[in-house]
Amino acid sequence: MGLTDTPRSERVHIGIFGHTNAGKSSLINALTGQKTSIVSDIEGTTTDPVFKAIELFPIGPCVLIDTPGLNDNSILGKERITKAFEVLGKTDVALIVVDGTSIMGRAEIALINEINVRKLPYLIIVNKADKMTDIDKKRIESDPFVKGHYFLVSAKFNERIDELKTYIGNMFKGKIREDHMLSDLVKKDDVIVLVTPIDESAPKGRMILPQQQAIRDVLHFKGITMVVEPDELEAAIKSLKNPPKLIVTDSQAFAKVGAIVPKNIPLTSFSILLARINYDLNYLVESAKSLKNIKPDDTILISEGCTHHRQCGDIGAVKIPALIKKTLGFEPKIRLTSGTDFASALDGVKLIIHCGGCMLNDKELEHRMELSKEKGIKMTNYGIMIAYMTGILDRAVAPLL
């Protein structure tokens, strides 16, 4: 597997923050050994978060996030600084780059305070060490916001960059989560049937990430995988000498698959398997059942973690709203978001139905869940909500609870 083959959602996210021209982009170039980010003396060169894949021992695959300067005074500066703070929602560790020859400003202090509120691990990278005087070093060492959390480097001259990589890697020792979707559900020689519809909403020429992860997990635990479309499922089950240990379906095929699979065979979905890793599964089930309390004037937010072209049969924009209308007998207000447009869309929302989140990292999913709880909004995901609306939720979560 190449450097960029690991999905971003499975990488440790390292956010890099700081003043304009403190050396954030230079640091990323030094860490990656490439001219990934534009380096310029002109303030505000980085206008939007920039993502770059990297490998750090002993963490493994990571992604560095270069953010706009915290003191951007341009016309769009406030919006860019807001984007920089939003990156904290997906950050596993924050690196705050400061110019070692300057005094740390209010923007950096505000960021550190926010980081402490969120209980994120962080490290202050004191850059331009080659220009620092003894007075500068004493000032840095005595700063209460810096003390115990800093590392001196010169990104421009590549000084102490290898040591910094090792230091960051050691911050994660024993903290890397290695969850598997099917780890406790598959044993050697168990047959797992995966139902993967290939329709207008399926990505051309490939399978979606949860389907790939499920296949990998079955292989990892020495099981046997059968991958079929819904129309071939009945024949696949009949072809087996013994019933499969588990059937996992794409959420949108729940109704059809549920009618085919005998009650003695455990059945769940890819998004429900993801949910128990990324969320509190019991809370998601409870939230899905709260749909019955929705009134005609209430707003439901249907949110996608990634951005994609919504097609005529789109699950979030078309299929779920249609199921909601069928289940309730009326159509409440529906709000759609994708990508990073989540936090700004929560006002007035009574229920959030989120995608499986396969393109979001753990920290981002956790952050979105916490935001919904802070605002008193129930939140569930596509698979669980569809299972509830098709009347098979209890059956779909039974293998996992």
The CATH topology annotation of the largest domain reads as: Rossmann fold
Shape: elongated
Mean pLDDT: 83
Task: Indicate the CATH architecture of the largest domain.
Answer: 3-Layer(aba) Sandwich
Flag low-confidence runs.
38-46
Tell me the distance between the termini. Answer: 34 Å
Number of domains: 2
Percentage beta strand: 15-25%
Q: According to CATH, what is the class of the largest domain? A: Alpha Beta
Query: What is the count of β-strands?
Result: 14
Helical amount among residues, as a percent range?
25-40%
Helical/strand content category = alpha/beta
Summarize the structure.
With 401 residues, the chain is an alpha/beta fold. It is built from 14 helices and 14 strands.
Annotate the secondary structure layout.
Elements (H helix, E strand, L loop, with lengths): L11 E7 L5 H9 L17 E7 L3 E7 L10 H10 L6 E7 L6 H13 L3 E6 L6 H9 L7 E3 L8 H10 L20 E5 L13 H12 L3 E5 L4 H7 L6 E4 L4 H7 L6 E3 H9 L2 H9 L9 E6 L10 H14 L4 E6 L10 E6 L7 H13 L3 E4 H8 L3 H5 L4
Parallel strand pairs: 1-3, 1-4, 4-5, 5-6, 7-8, 7-9, 9-10, 11-12, 11-13, 13-14
Antiparallel strand pairs: 2-3
